[in-house]
Amino acid sequence: DDGGLEDRILAAKAALGDRVVILGHFYQRDEVIKFADFVGDSFQLANAAKAKPAAEAIVFCGVHFMAETADMLSGPGQSVILPNLAAGCSMADMADIESVSACWEQLAELYGTEPDAQGRVPVIPVTYMNSSAALKAFCGEHGGIVCTSSNAATVLDWAFERGQRVLFFPDQHLGRNTAKAMGVPLDQMPMWNPRQAWGGTDERTLRDARVILWHGFCSVHKRFNVGQIEKARAEFPGVRVIVHPECPMPVVDAADEAGSTDYILKAITAAPAGSTFAIGTEINMVNRLAAQYPQHTIFCLDPVICPCSTMYRIHPGYLAWVLEGLVRGEVLNQITVPEATAIPARVALERMLAAKP
Ligand code: 13P
Ligand code: SF4
């Protein structure tokens, strides 16, 4: 029993009609997802906001950086609402504008600021979508770009056409896994740690660097390990192991495939009935896939549950509260990015949306 929440949400949605659109990330719990008008990965949700649905309010069931992005891409006069303002992302918090600027200065000292003979600048900054609007703005201002887990290779190609090197933040794993798959050797990927700078990286590695990683990670995907994959293969011969590229490199290497949440969904929908999947991503998504596709065997690699605790902060009670606010004409928990930040951040976002695979 949800104490009447479902009825309250349905009543508010009915009263609002087309005035509201609810977007939901795949990691949201079922009790929230069932009210979403559109469900997707972070790239698809950014596009959904950019499509400027004919609604005065977009209620974003996801985390803070996604709602910021939706605000920057949505139409004028459209408000974006995050049902619980405490729904952040611990990875996004691992890089801030001060520490990225400090790193940037170090890179200018190391590599200078002049383009090479082919016109490529010394460093292109690439921020993962999982970052604050201020960091997207930094990228927009410094010739850089945004990526998501579904287009990271396309974006790195874009960056290597324009730069000799890439500074990739905040997720070291997505950066390393993507660059490695593109053929960048590991010894050309030094890592910057905002607390200990280069942390003893030798000069040669810095000189030859192609991708400078940032010491950030996702606490959910960090939990997966190779032992879990070996166990799944022993128990289910023929199992297809698919993990999210936020997982550490040995996990991605041991898996059959790595891809974004939408990639995982598409792999499952395209598989012949009776397939077995071991998935390395957030538990709410995996459990939902298992329920939606009973013709397959689908389980999460982590036997102890691994929810994203901040995604989980979007409780249906908050959804009911913000929707009922809209019915009364009140916009609660609005996410607004100031234009001074949004203008350069949009430049970096639009570069990503325009980059073709
Ligand atoms: P995608 O939806 O892009 O796969 O990202 C997963 C994630 O961690 C979002 O926070
Ligand atoms: Fe952030 Fe990881 Fe949660 Fe995604 S799953 S929102 S990266 S903490």
TrEMBL record:
Its main location: cytoplasm. Its cofactor is [4Fe-4S] cluster. Pathway: Cofactor biosynthesis; NAD(+) biosynthesis; quinolinate from iminoaspartate: step 1/1. Its EC number is 2.5.1.72. Keywords: 4Fe-4S, Cytoplasm, Iron, Iron-sulfur, Metal-binding, Pyridine nucleotide biosynthesis, Transferase. [4Fe-4S] cluster binds at C89, C218, C308. Binds 1 [4Fe-4S] cluster per subunit. Belongs to the quinolinate synthase family. Type 3 subfamily. Catalyzes the condensation of iminoaspartate with dihydroxyacetone phosphate to form quinolinate. This is Quinolinate synthase. It comes from Arthrobacter terrae. The chain holds residues 85 to 441 of 441 of the full protein.
